[in-house]
Amino acid sequence: MTIQIPTSFAAQPEQVAFHRTELAPILGLYGRFVAVGEWRDYGLSCLREVAIFSVFRRTAEHSLYRIEKRPKLRLKQGQYAVIGAEGQVLKRGNDLKAVLSVLERKLIRAVD
Questions:
Q1: Which residues pair with 59 in a beta bridge?
Q2: How far apart are CA 83 and CA 35, in angstroms?
Q3: Inter-axis angle of helices 96-111 and 20-35, nearest 10
Q4: CB 3.0–4.6 Å: which of 7, 15, 39, 41 could bond 56 by disulfide?
Q5: pLDDT tens digits for the chain (112 residues)?
Q6: How far is CA 29 from the centre of its chain?
Q7: Would you give the end-to-end CA distance of the chain in angstroms?
Q8: Can you tell me the distance from the alpha carbon of 103 to that of 65, in angstroms, rounded to the nearest whole number?
Q9: Do 53 and 46 contact (CB within 8 A), yes or no?
Q10: What number of other Cβ atoms are within 10 A of residue 99's Cβ?
Q11: What are the φ/ψ torsions at residue 102 (nearest 5 degrees)?
């Protein structure tokens, strides 16, 4: 007896993760914020439907920002999002560098 698995279940990965090409701009931005003393720690979570890169001012605090990747939203709102400490979506889209630009502007203010 053969069991057929529906293609909708077979195509889903076990967990969502950032690819190396996605982590490079994220870590580059993180390094620049660390250099100016704004950020001190980060956390990376790879879950079933979302991958999250969280940045912290101090390890024991809540995250300042979360960079999320939700592949299911790529055809709707965009798979990448930057979310603030209070849960507000600061920017969303399919181009990671464009989404990270909202944080780039904060870096320019921090350096001034």
A1: none
A2: 22
A3: 10
A4: 41
A5: 566 555 555 555 588 888 999 999 999 999 999 998 888 899 999 999 999 999 998 766 788 999 999 988 888 888 899 998 888 999 999 999 999 999 888 777 665 5
A6: 12
A7: 69
A8: 9
A9: no
A10: 22
A11: -65, -35
CB count within 10 Å of CB 25 equals 14
CB under 8 A, 24+ apart: contacts of 70-78: 70/16, 71/16
Evaluate the CA torsion angle 70, 95, 106, 33 in order and state its sign: positive
The domain limits of the chain are: 13-111
pTM greater than 0.90: no
Given the structure tokens 């999250």, which residue do they identify? 52
| Eight-state DSSP code of residue 32 | H
The encoded tokens of residue 56 equal 């912290």
Token readout for 86 is 């209070």
**Distance between CA 72 and CA 70 in Å, rounded?**
6
Compute the distance between CA of residue 51 and CA of residue 32 in angstroms, rounded to an integer. 22
Which residue type sits at 20? R
